[in-house]
């Protein structure tokens, strides 16, 4: 009995103690899955902390770069010798309150040309009030128009649609002096005898020919045209056409020709100026001669400081018509052949004088210093 009571009391005491103090959970041994999960969480914490540090470093480096760029821009702005040609709200200009300011310089020709994106935000009235730089009159420079060289009782008169004496810019045309049979033969010979190049983003065919002894390539509009020596048929066409420009002797003829093939009315040439370094047309008088063969197309001109795309002068050039641009027209004017609804092809031969040959061209070594 005593033992039984003792056991009962011990049991009750253990029960009461267990009820007052709940039993602690036993720690189970770690399995591989739990170890891998703990390792993964630790790795994630390390990566997140490293990412945070890297992002902070990158943001600091970016801020440093921005500050250095702003410093460089401010320094270049302070050091830049170029001043804008135009300025809104300025009282200095050709007319007070016109909103146009002029650059002061030793030479008017040194003024930078206004870019096209800036022209779009300037009113036409302000552009009309602007006095573009003028050139010396042709009586001082000795410029003689080609239309004046071929005067005679049996020679047709040239018509000059552009006579800008202040800027020494001229453009004119002569209606076809050739027969229809001659024009057809010229077109067929030029079409069949030319290796037409068709660049991907150029809406026409083109070719570049030069006189014997010249190897200058022609670069324009992001394209480079390799030269081809004048073939015999080109000399025949020049022999027939050059006298109507007043150039009787072969030594006076142009030494380069750019040929363009307009397959349809959609083939065109955008606004541009032939101011490449080969021809030096921005710094001296330059003559450009052309012969049109095929369907009639419109040839347009405009001042290069004009904001809209409208032409100020134009001429309709048909089969066999001759055209010329002279003086400083490539400096102060632009020209184009816009798209048209006409059907049929057209070939244009544009002759020019290359005066600044490339360093590797043999013709450059023959030029006087």
UniProtKB/TrEMBL annotation:
Q: What is this protein called?
A: Fe2OG dioxygenase domain-containing protein
- Region described as Disordered: spans on this chain: 1-112
- The superkingdom listed in its UniProt entry is Eukaryota
Residue stretches spanning the membrane: none
Organism encoding this protein: Polarella glacialis
InterPro entries, per the entry: AlkB-like, AlkB-like_sf, ALKBH3, Oxoglu/Fe-dep_dioxygenase_dom
GO MF annotation: an example: dioxygenase activity
UniProt-listed GO biological process terms: DNA alkylation repair
- Give start-end positions of Low complexity composition bias: 1-20
Domain named Fe2OG dioxygenase: which ranges? 253-359
**Sorted alphabetically, which Pfam families does this protein's record hold?**
2OG-FeII_Oxy_2
**Basic residues: bias regions:** 43-81
